[in-house]
Amino acid sequence: MPKWLKNAVFYEIYPQSFKDSNGDGIGDFQGIIEKLDYIKGLGCNAIWMNPCYDSPFQDAGYDVRDYKKTAARYGSNEDLVRLFQEVHRRDMHILLDLVPGHTSEEHEWFRLSSRAERNEYSDRYIWTDNWFQAPEGLKHVAGESERNGVYVLNFFKCQPALNYGFLHPEQPWQKGMDDPAAVATKEALKDIMRFWLDAGCDGFRVDMADSLVKNDDEKKTGTCMIWKEIRKMLDESYPEAAIVSEWNRPELAIPAGFHMDFCLDWGGNGYNLLMRDKKDGVNNSFFRKDSTRSILDFFGEYLKSYEKIRKIGHYCLITGNHDTVRASHFLDVRELKLAYAFLFTMPGNPFLYYGDEIGMRYQEELITKEGGYTRTGSRTPMQWDSSKNHGFSTAEPEKLYLPVDITLNAPTAEAQEQDADSLLHVVKAVLKLRGEQEALTDNENLELLYAKEGVRSFAYRRGNLLMMCNPSGEEAVIRMEDLMTVSAETPKALESAVESGTKLFEIGAADYADGSCRLGEQSFVIWQIKNTSV
């Protein structure tokens, strides 16, 4: 495990929408450099940047045309290296976005693979043996090349799947994982990773990490074998490089070699129910003031995965990302404060999506851009201040990558910096506390102490810190004798520890007296408890 991951807090940057430094309406590397101090000032000491490689941008850069060349709209390879250097100068780290499963149809590999005559890249992608042979159970395209075959897709039509082999080949055109062509693809992936690690990046977020080997089994046996081999390469040659998977099955991803796995927003899963549970016009997200949910709707699922990997890797919670509707679409500012306080005091490495720290709006009215569709509204320009285009760019509005939010009272970083009661100040305060308290960087110490069906309030512990939350609109009382303890203390001993402890952080009102914690409506409190060894 890279040492720097112990206390890493990540900030996700969608580069085209973050900061434009040259007035062309699109964010760039120099713009990111100009805002590094802002990011560090939030309490974030690491960055995940979405794809910045050369691309036709039919899927916002997840359709890579050249893995070793940056997109000109962001800057040159040299500019990206300078970004790495500026990040490191501030004692920060940066992950690039790795897209291993497919390329753009404009990639040179695919152009060569599409030719009728055999060549080095004929089997770099997955093709059937003739133009009328559809690959059963796999997305595919026919009639687009001179080659007599049908090729397999991973996502959009423009994203042909790279050939890492089939776990159990059943057709003549299906290559095994040990076929020279599949091995060559795997070695090409390693080469790409080495190229950027040698240039100064600190690792990768891996797109669709579970989808390399085709017709894989439920345990993703074939794909896991590849990642184990890659982790071996990293441990031997780049021991401080980190990888995080887009997978949301940490019990598979972490043993396969990933240091981190994301807890993702899948409709109806535990994470989704925290902030985005809206069906048929009814919003019952847990952190809503009027929700009927218990925190067990989340923990019942989360703890099963956490307990399996807490000693060997990190299961990471996110405020959102470039693929999800912003949480502000479902929660108001007070509700967001409670949700973020919870997310930032949980195990794993938190990931803060740009603009979430000020509650940027999801612009659902936007027409799709670069394959974004319903995701487009979460990818709009960062709102820095009250100047033209909210400080994102000096370009004319019609030249911007996407429209800025022009609604009345659209939040900006500048305005919230000046408002002590803002969402931004809560984010900074909790992340500052996370950086100061060693208990919040211990990945193994989570204890759920109080959670009941039909009860809105809950409590959990991280070492010498006790967190209590009441997201409801009514006062709640948690009696210390009702706490469930899985460590050495009895409830009575824990009561004594709280009584002699210190309140470190508070949203709303929270008080302790006579063996009970009284939590005001929509409140969150962190107690530093004393004498925890009994």
Per-chain topology:
Elements: E1 10-13, H1 29-34, H2 36-42, E2 46-49, E3 53-54, E4 66-70, H3 77-89, E5 93-98, H4 108-113, E6 140-141, E7 151-152, H5 180-199, E8 203-206, H6 221-237, E9 242-245, H7 250-253, E10 260-262, H8 270-275, E11 278-279, E12 282-283, H9 296-309, E13 314-316, H10 333-343, E14 351-353, H11 413-417, H12 423-436, E15 446-450, E16 458-462, E17 465-470, E18 476-479, H13 491-499, E19 502-507, E20 510-513, E21 516-519, E22 523-528
Parallel strand pairs: 1-2, 1-14, 2-5, 5-8, 8-9, 9-10, 10-13
Antiparallel strand pairs: 3-4, 6-7, 11-12, 15-16, 16-17, 17-22, 18-21, 19-22, 20-21
Helix pairs in contact: 10-12
Structure at a glance:
The chain is α/β, with parallel strands linked by helices and 534 residues long. It has helices at residues 29-34, 36-42, 77-89, 108-113, 180-199, 221-237, 250-253, 270-275, 296-309, 333-343, 413-417, 423-436, 491-499, and strands at residues 10-13, 46-49, 53-54, 66-70, 93-98, 140-141, 151-152, 203-206, 242-245, 260-262, 278-279, 282-283, 314-316, 351-353, 446-450, 458-462, 465-470, 476-479, 502-507, 510-513, 516-519, 523-528. Helices cover 25% and strands 16% of the residues.
Structure report:
By secondary structure, this protein is an alpha/beta fold. The protein has helices spanning 29-34, 36-42, 77-89, 108-113, 180-199, 221-237, 250-253, 270-275, 296-309, 333-343, 413-417, 423-436, 491-499; strands at residues 10-13, 46-49, 53-54, 66-70, 93-98, 140-141, 151-152, 203-206, 242-245, 260-262, 278-279, 282-283, 314-316, 351-353, 446-450, 458-462, 465-470, 476-479, 502-507, 510-513, 516-519, 523-528. Helices cover 25% and strands 16% of the residues. The strands form 6 sheets. An 8-stranded parallel β-sheet has the order 13-10-9-8-5-2-1-14, with helices on one face. Strand 8 (203-206), helix 6 (221-237) and strand 9 (242-245) form a beta-alpha-beta unit. It starts with 9 loop residues before the first strand and ends in a 6-residue tail after the last strand.
